[in-house]
Design a protein that fits this description.
By secondary structure, the protein is α/β, with parallel strands linked by helices. The chain contains nine helices and 19 strands. The strands form four sheets. Strands 2-1-10-9-7-8-5-15 form an eight-stranded mixed beta sheet, with helices on both faces. Strands 3-14-13-6-4 form a five-stranded mixed beta sheet, with no helix packed on it. Strand 13 and strand 14 form a beta hairpin. The radius of gyration is 19 Å and the shape is globular. The two termini are 37 Å apart. This is Protein N-terminal asparagine amidohydrolase. One of its GO terms (molecular function) is protein-N-terminal asparagine amidohydrolase activity. It comes from Euphydryas editha (Edith's checkerspot). One of its GO terms (cellular component) is nucleus. InterPro entries: NTAN1.
Amino acid sequence: MVVVLNGVLADECPKSIRALLAAHPGYRDAAAQLLGATARVIGPPGLLYVGQRELAAVVPHDKNVGIIGSDDATSCIIVVVRHSGSGAVALAHLDGSGTADAAATMVARVQQLAVGYPEGRLELQLVGGFTDPHRYSDDLFANIMLSFHRLTEEIDLTLACCCELNTALGGGSPTPLVTGIGVDIRAGDLFPASFPDKGPELALRGARNITGGLHSAQVLDIYDNGLAMLRIGPFNYEPLRGVDLWLEQSDDFILQHLSTTPAVEPPHFVHNIRVTLKFIQQHPFPAVTVFPDNRPHYYRRDEQTGCWVPVRF
C-alpha cells in the first residue's frame, strides 16, 4: 500500500515530520485545523474506547457505536484508517510494538467492512506524539509510515499531527498539544477528545503493556463486528518479577521508571499503573485465572444506559 502524499504517489516514504513538511508543507495547515478545534470530553454511551496496543474497526450503521477514540497518547501515536466510500473506520493506539501487523490488520478490516459499498479511497490519519528528548515519537512516526508504505495498495495520508507539529514549547519543556482523539463514525469527523471512562477491564487490558510474553507485543482487535460486541482476550502474559516491590514504591518513583515521558503524563497515570500492578499481582497467570476456558470476555451495549455490560456468549 504505497502512501499517497497530497495526491502524489510517494517513491520514498518520509522518515520524519520535518521531511514530510519539506516536500509537502500543506500538512501543517491540516494539523493546525485539528489543533484549533475544541476538545471534547466524551462519556461512555456510544463510545468504543481503544487502549494502548489495541485496535478496532467499525461502520457508520453500527447502532452500538457512535464514537471510536483513544487518549493518553503522549509519546504514542493514534492511527486512523478510513474508507471514504463506506465510512468504515479503524483506529489503533500504537507505541512501537506490533506496528507492521497492526497496519496490515487495520487495512484488511476496513476493506472487509467496505465490501458492497460505493468505491472510495483509503485515508490515513496520524495524531499524537511530540518532540520528546528521546525521540520516541519521531522513531514511531517513521515506523508507522514505513509499515503502511510497504503494503501493496494506495492509502492517502490526509493528516499528520505528530511530533513537532503536535508540540508546545512554552515554559521551555516540550509538551504534546493533543493526546487524544475521537472519530464520529457517522459524520466522519475527527476531533481532539478525552475519555474519563475507558471501558471495562482496563487493568487487565493494560497489564500487557507492563509485562512480557508473546501476547504483550501484539496489537489486539477488541471489537467483533459480526456480534457488535466489545471483545477482551483471551491472552496471557508473563509474571512480573518484583511486582510486590513495585507496589511499595512512591508515586514519583513509579512515574519516573514506568513512563517513557514522565514530565507530561496525565494526573491519573500513576493511579492507573498501581491498579494494573495490583491486578498483575493477583493474576500472574491470566490464562489460568482470567481466561480459564480460553474464551474472550464479551460485552454488549446496554440499551438503557449506553454502557458496555458483560454477557455470556
